[in-house]
């Protein structure tokens, strides 16, 4: 087996949660697992415990709370009582306390909470802070698909998360990248405490990956495929210490682990971000 590399997190979004995937991940040295209470039709925790309960102690396990079964299928809530109950349920269903629980896409409910959106965010974060204090999880974080609405809410009243998770990769827009950087700075988080997610926006077979060659961002591209290069570059857009990536194929996961050998040309990354900002400024409002 390879030594565990904390920079790769196996994400279970859209995954079938098969045992062979988890054993394959461990064989590759990928010992970090990320799921959510609403994955697999709100059954992710129970299925993991049933099919791979003996393997879970070998992983650091993170999950997310914030989405709940609703009248129309799924609803989002920042209600601290519901969040605390969800943290309790996650530990119960997994058969162990998660190492990390994320507040999932808080921005989803912030518009509905106006003009008290900051209070709602503070109370939601405080609920996860309390969950840590009560031993329901080892740490808590914030996972945000669109972090921009959170920026105006950050002040001394907001509890500080241990980890921030944001979108990462070549398909992330300038506004989101800049917001992620600003949140990282506001919370005083080093890059090791920032995770990226969805580096391929769902699929490596999308037409965009046949039209661009991410290897231009690498110092030596001769050994890596386009998919591997795109994954390696995701650690720099924005700068993150870990990337959560979903797959049901251990071979694909192995390909991505192999991408970590690549070296990114930082100057090219900065030029690319400048181009993104220029394009963003030129777009009509």
Mean pLDDT: 92
Please report the distance between the alpha carbons of the first and last residues. Answer: 52 Å
The main sheet comes to:
8 strands, parallel, barrel
DSSP helix count? 11
Q: Name the strands of the widest sheet in spatial order.
A: 1-2-3-6-7-8-9-10
Give the % helix. 25-40%
- One letter per element, helices H and strands E, the order comes to EHEHHEEEHEHHEEHEHHEHH
Structural domain tally: 2
Rg calc: 19 Å
Number of strands: 10
**Uncertain segments:** 1-6
Helix-and-strand structural type: alpha/beta
Q: How much of the residues is beta strand, in percent? A: 15-25%
Shape: globular
Explain the overall architecture.
- Helix 1 links the parallel strand 1 (8-11) and strand 2.
- The protein has helices at 19-27, 39-42, 44-52, 80-94, 107-113, 117-133, 174-186, 208-211, 226-233, 250-258, 266-282, and strands at 8-11, 32-34, 60-65, 67-70, 73-76, 100-104, 140-144, 163-167, 194-197, 242-246.
- It folds into two domains: 1-34 and 165-280, no CATH class; 59-161, NADP-dependent oxidoreductase domain (TIM Barrel, Alpha-Beta Barrel), CATH 3.20.20.100.
- The chain is globular.
- The strands form two sheets. It has an eight-stranded parallel β-barrel.
- Helix 1 (19-27) runs parallel beside helix 10 (250-258), helix 4 packs parallel to helix 6 and helix 5 crosses helix 6.
- By secondary structure, it is α/β, with parallel strands linked by helices.
């Amino acid at each position: 087996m390879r030594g565990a590399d904390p920079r790769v997190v196996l994400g279970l979004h859209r995954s079938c949660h098969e045992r062979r995937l988890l054993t394959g991940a461990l064989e590759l040295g990928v010992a970090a697992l990320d799921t959510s209470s609403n994955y697999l039709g709100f059954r992710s925790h129970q299925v993991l415990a049933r099919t791979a309960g003996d393997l879970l102690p070998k992983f650091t396990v993170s999950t997310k709370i914030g989405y709940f079964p609703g009248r129309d299928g799924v609803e989002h809530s920042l209600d601290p009582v519901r969040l605390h109950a969800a943290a309790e349920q996650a530990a119960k269903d997994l058969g162990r306390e998660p190492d990390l629980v994320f507040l999932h896409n808080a921005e989803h409910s912030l518009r509905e909470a106006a003009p008290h959106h900051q209070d709602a965010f503070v109370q939601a974060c405080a609920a996860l802070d309390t969950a840590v204090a009560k031993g329901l999880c080892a740490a808590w974080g914030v996972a945000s698909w669109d972090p921009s609405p959170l920026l105006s809410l950050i002040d001394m009243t907001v509890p500080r998360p241990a980890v921030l998770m944001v979108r990462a990769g070549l398909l992330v827009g300038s506004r989101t990248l800049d917001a992620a950087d600003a949140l990282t700075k506001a919370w005083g988080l080093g890059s090791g405490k920032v995770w990226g997610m969805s580096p391929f926006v769902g699929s490596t077979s999308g037409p965009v990956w046949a039209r661009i060659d991410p290897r231009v961002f690498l110092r030596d591209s001769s050994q890596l495929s386009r998919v591997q290069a795109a994954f390696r570059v995701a650690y720099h857009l924005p700068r993150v210490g870990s990337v959560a990536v979903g797959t049901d194929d251990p071979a694909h996961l192995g390909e991505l682990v192999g991408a970590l050998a690549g070296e990114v040309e930082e100057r090219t990354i900065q030029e690319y971000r400048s181009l993104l900002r220029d394009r963003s400024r030129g777009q009509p409002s």
